[in-house]
Amino acid sequence: QAYLSYSNIAALTHLARKSGWDITRTLDNVKIWTHEEGAVLSLKVEMQVKVPSDVAFSLLSDFRLRQRWDRHFLTCEVLQAVSEEEKIYHVTAPPTTGHKPRDFVILVSQRQPCRPQEPYTVAVRSVTLRAVPPSPEFCRSEILCAGFQIHSNSSSSCTVCYFNQVTSGVMPYLAANLTGSSKSIEDTALQCIKFLE
Description:
The protein is an alpha+beta fold. Helix content is 24%, strand content 40%. It starts with a helix and ends with a helix. This is ACO12 thioesterase.
């Protein structure tokens, strides 16, 4: 379990540090970037938020609050509180056209910065849990690596970066047509900012 938590944080940190991100969209307080490497498409959404970084961290690390701003989350329940910094959740997501609703079993690991210049981190990855086998009602999907890095800008503002390594199983509509769905990503980012502020 400790290894899983460590590798969860490490994978997100590694993704965030990659070079070669291409900016695809810029709004006043949202920027969307993509990174392609083989069959893996990674997404980065940067949001400027007028709340302190610790407040954003506390709100974004509790995934039960995510339905308030992310319409891709239908339900979210805690299956297991592994530690104060680690929880396993079961998430259901609405169906895309012609498909069953999706579900995920995810480990969410959160870390506060060790040094002032480091970000707050909330890392997400799929795990298997014997207690929750795949159900015929849902299409069990996998998150390779996703999460948030929250950088403090001042005592009352921060930059929230959302990352997701996208495979066709995670977001079929996104992988199929990134430009068409940038509007959906923008809308979700704006809802996230509104929720945090």
